Amino acid sequence: MGSETAVTYSTVRRGLRSARVVIVFDGGQNWSYWARRALYLASRTWGGRGFVLVPHQDGHVAPALLRACRTYDPDHVVTFRQELVDFEYFLPDHFQMTGEDGLPLAGRDRWEALAGDNIWWDTHTDSDRQARDQIAAVCSPYKGAGDGGDIVRHFGQQPEDFPDVNLMPGLAVVNCAQCPPNWGGLLGVAVASHAGLVDAPNPAAVEPEVDDATRRRLTRWMMGTGSLPPESLARLPLDGANLSDIGRAWDYTTSGLIGVSRFGDSSPEILVVVGDSAEDFALARLWQHTYGQGIWLPSVLGADEDGLPAASVMQSVVTTYSTIRSTGATVTVTSTSLPGDDLARVLERLRAEAGTWFGDEADGVGKVLPAGELVWPRRATVHLGIGEQFDEPLSVPTEVDPTGTRTMLTPLPSPLLHDRVLARHLHITWHVDITWPDDRSVLGGGMTGRELLAPSNGLAVTLARSGRYGTSYPSRRHDLVLPGIPAADTLAQPRLRDLSLAAWVDAKLAQHDLTSRLSSAGHKTAQLARMFGDRHAVMDLLAGPLLPALRKMDARGKRSKDCYPQDEGVRIRAGYGVLNFAGFATWSTASSKEQVRRDLDTALRAGVIRRGLVLECQVCTELQFQPIDRLGQRWTCERCDAGNDLDQPAWNLPLQEPCWFYDLHPVGRQLLADHGEVPIALAAHLARTSNSHSAYQDLAEIEFVGNGRAQVELDLIAYRDGILSIGEAKSAAQLNGKNTNERAKEIRKKCQAAVWLEADELIFATSAANWTPGTETSIREVAAAFGWPPIGPPVIRMLAGLDIPGMVTAKVLSLQ
Question: Is the pTM higher than 0.70?
């Protein structure tokens, strides 16, 4: 890449959507009511059908839910204000109140005091706040430009961010299917999650008693099989109307919105979550609103009974499974609360039911997986987009700096709404997703407007964050907007930056008061990339079929015949030899001589490999390699500067004309001498196994620096398919270090680097056939004892056999 900034046009894609919100609630005692209360608030909010709920236990959120939230990618993480009536019901006398006489108030006097307009109570508990901060820390919600704090912390704090559908012009909330206010317990939560609530739930509600027929009908309806709900779910008397004529309460929250799917190379599994805990409910809803294929199966629906739920669940699964089974996707049964044996029994009942449709194929339907081992890919996700405006191409002029960061030169146009009903609601806020071309944007990491807005843009104009598909920002301007100005001028028109991987890493490290720099090996690799003009060309050379031949240039024998018995090259001096074309054809793993020729010519054009002659000076008798660019009829000895004739005594054999030889650039030789090809082999492996080779990007041999000292060195930082990986690559079968303590210290450094970058994967790779058993044990023990954040460790992967493309072995370490 050159040193000058390039100016070009980029076709970005703009999507308009409603907010994605995580609502935090207490998952302890009475969790079913708090969940229904949160669902009721979401059911009154535009776009609320897409909101997810996450429980906490005394302020702590399960790691599986934290990982889910990071992929769900909320714009806001909020608590909700609990009503005083809720506290009075569940925690009598929680608020201490006295009258003018100093005595505690009771009965009607106490209630009138609680309901007084001049009384304000902070009903957000410390546990709620702690859990909210825990989730926000692993996601990238909107943050203010000052202290970096989240711009919205509590539901309803800013009404324009959570528009009430009852206040939207042209929209009337009338009859619908909803969870009856007096339905509590697990069934109440399940129905409320599927249908929504227009009327506030009753805190005294208990589990409703329903017969088996009603339960089957409810299950089929909630599984999305096209069945109608029971009549008891109609909010108002039907008065002759048919159940098919009314929708769900959630439908009122989707005015002007449509479901949008962004598919990757394969669809995620259908997830069946079994269990009665708040975490089980939340896990299923998170999967449903991230991928569209999540099912919650609590005991009240008969998860532990033979026959009852299987048919209804499989009716939902079968249609989807029939279309995706060719891709290898399947049904996954999981739980946060039940043991594996219970899950296996549920899976067997599903398989038995699946046999009705798939016959013997049903034996392979599904698998059991602990909730903590679920993979949450950033592809194939779903969200609520604004109809006809969820994917608009926009061509904008951009400049590209030497690192690859792209910056818009002109502001984006105002995101005006086409939908007339939505446009009439003057104070509504929607959200704008900008997806950059080439799928190279590094997502997440807590990036804010400070890093994502062009410097001259002014941070007060709008907020910005690194979202699920690219950069997201709210539609409305955040600086002074005077009454009466045109609607277009009330909307944000930012100039955005698309950070390169190098710029993203620097921005992420700055959050920890760290910087980055290339190590010595990193400078050598970067020099080769500059010579080629392409990082991928370096991987093709030093991790491709020519590598075995390049290694033969080290000339370890004492004579040329010892090093090259078939005259494939010449030993110039100890550790320094050159090869002819026959040598490359012999020692490379290329499929043909034509491929060897093509690969050599590519490297020759870049100057990474040089063509020349092996000549002997007639004055000092120094044997040397003379590049073609220095040759003429007279050539100069590199040792004594004597002039020589280019005639037969200089090259000796063959008699007729000299033979061309090939030399590797000194930078390349130094890199091979230090085993610098091993990180490149790891990079090549990751690039080959990514879904999009062109979108793969990496940084090699990087040091993190704090207080002027290198804190840790990483052989590789790679980004592909939405996954950030950091890697340690070795030529030996064990890690560096004189003793166990030194090796453990290095492992802890890599773990810390993974925390700083919020890496998805920590990879230990070797070109040896296998890691030593002791090395694997050390990595597992040190990683298990490391102080990981609440979200837990990244995936720790062991790779071996990097020297043989296509034969790399991989293993994921379990820290349990």
Answer: yes
